[in-house]
Amino acid sequence: MNKEAKIMFSSEAKEVYDFLSNKPYKKEQMILKAINKKLELIKRNVHYGNVLSKKLIPSEYQSKYCATNLFRIELPCFWRMLYTLTAERRIEVIAFVLDIVDHKQYNKKFGYKKK
After folding, report:
1. 113 pLDDT tier (thresholds 50, 70, 90)
2. The pLDDT of residue 114 is above 90
3. What distance in Å separates the CA atoms of residue 35 and residue 39, rounded to the nearest whole number?
4. Whether 69 contacts 54, CB under 8 Å
5. Torsion angles phi and psi, residue 78, rounded to 5
6. Which of 21, 43, 80, 83 has the most beta carbons within 10 angstroms of its beta carbon?
7. What domains can you pick out in the chain, each with its CATH number?
C-alpha cells in the first residue's frame, strides 16, 4: 500500500503560489492550474519530476533547505517548479516545494547565460 506524499511549500514558493492564486488573468490561472495538477501527481509518485544532478543543486537550496536531491517540473510559459524529498521519522515522505520560478529566474539560479 503506497501512502500519498505530503506536500509542503517553502515561504518563497508559497508567496508565488498565493500571488498566482490572486490573479484573475488567463496566464497566471493556467500556471496555477498546472501547478495544482502536478502537485497531485507528486502526491501519488514522489519521483514524478525530472531528477537534476546533485552537482546542479544551487548552493542556496543546499544551505537553506539541506537539499540533497532536486526535482524539476516544467510548467506552462517556461515556468518551473522545483522540489526536494525529505522523510520525517521514516514514515512520511514529504515533497518540499522550494521554488516556483519563471524562465528568467530559473536561468539565473542555475547559472545559465543568454547566448
Report:
1. confident
2. no
3. 6
4. yes
5. 65, 25
6. 83
7. 6-109 (3.30.2310.20)
